Amino acid sequence: MENKQRSYKEQRKNSKEFNNRTEYLEHELTIMKFRKWRLNLPFRDFSFELEDLVPALAATIGKVVMVTAMVAAFAVQFGLAPEFVAENVRFELLIAGGIFVILFSAILNPNANLAGTHGPMIPLIPIIAAAGGHPLALGVLIGFFGLLLSITKGGSKLMTLTGVGVRGGLLIYLGAVGLIGQIGKFNGWAEASGVSTVSFVVIGITIIIYAYLARIGKRWLAIPLCSAIAGIVAFSMGADFAFTTKPGLPHMNPFWWWGETTGWQLGWPNLQHYIAVIPFAILAVAMWSPDYLGHRVFQEMNYPKQAKNVLMDVDDTMTVASIRQAIGAFLGGGNIASSWGTYMIPAAIAKRPIPAGAILTGILCILAGVLGYPMDLAMWEPVLRIALIVGVFLPLLEAGMQMIQKQQDSLSAGTCIFASALVNPVFGWALTMLLDNLGLIGDRERASKLSWTEKLVIPSVMFIVCVVALGLVGQLPGIKGIF
């Protein structure tokens, strides 16, 4: 019987039969074939390994950090107390970070990455609130537009049309800007807390540890190890830390969350609220493609070429993120969903597929939400900043640099970085993809093989949609937004 017809259980071998751990993990990746939108079971379709615990820990830390930032931004605009933020983060950890992740990304479709947090939308929250936006209306429309894109297979098509140079430039920009931003915020916090040397010492130690982990091929340990060391070093140098969030459960009733005097204190949205958030919902979904693209690249770079059956499916991930967004918002959550980067990046580096780590992530998120105290630790500045630096931004920067191997790709990458710096990564991606596919920059041989629909029509439509959405919400330099 050929390998393609044999089941995962039949092809699985003991790790002792391989020369090293890497060979064993790569063999596991090549023999798995998940059942899309059908029941996938542990030990029948996938297994648990020690390496699955690392991305699960990284994802849990990242979840607490990102959801807190998102909900806190909303809370400031609507005048809500810090207690609301903790309550809503708990809710997100239990429902979206726990139950939803296990059900969709582990059991029903392991080719869909976990639905995380749409970090680039955080700076737009004050604009959304000022425009009269409503979190529930925003969540519902993002879910609707996302499903529309996934059903039409638009996400995977856009990924295919994004050339190597554009991908590399996008990753380099996101990595470099994020890295500089996190270091700046860490330094600012250290100075304000009266422990200005903490940031320098912690980051210095992190550089040494990260370099050593890269040397021995263990970068997948970076988030939990570097975060733990950062917390220990910062505390030993006098940085203040205290546990304040007690164990408990959040409100589970959507009528409480969307009451006029309870929860969000906004009531249910009306037609005006939906109209106000249309451009923001379009922009959020338009930003998904480059985000998802960056995450899948890590799998392609770290998995063996034969492991195509376990790669993240962009359209399926959009479907899961859309469903999670609409349901989570209706139930009361304040998170804006996207592909879960703090899970996918370390999981790909560790050469592990999605489902086993997804189950562990869901369990850890539920425990963190119920216990409360782990939320305090993950949100502490030294832990938070180092986790984002070594888990997201450094790997993004490295991956982008590794992709640029040809001179023509470097031109596309440089143009993408330039355009992204002018406006934002969405504009940079859309403009450079159009220029690259037309053959005006980058690999002209690749452009000559594309049809006119792929060269001009699809990239032009995407560019126009992005520019119009950005213009409406005031994100184009020198142009005042309508909303």
Automatic annotation (TrEMBL):
One Pfam assignment: DUF3360
InterPro entries: DUF3360 (IPR021794)
Spans traversing the lipid bilayer: 56-81, 93-112, 124-151, 158-180, 192-213, 220-243, 271-289, 354-373, 379-399, 411-435, 455-473
Keywords: Membrane, Transmembrane, Transmembrane helix
Record flagged with keyword Membrane: yes
The protein, known as: DUF3360 family protein
Organism (species): Carboxylicivirga marina
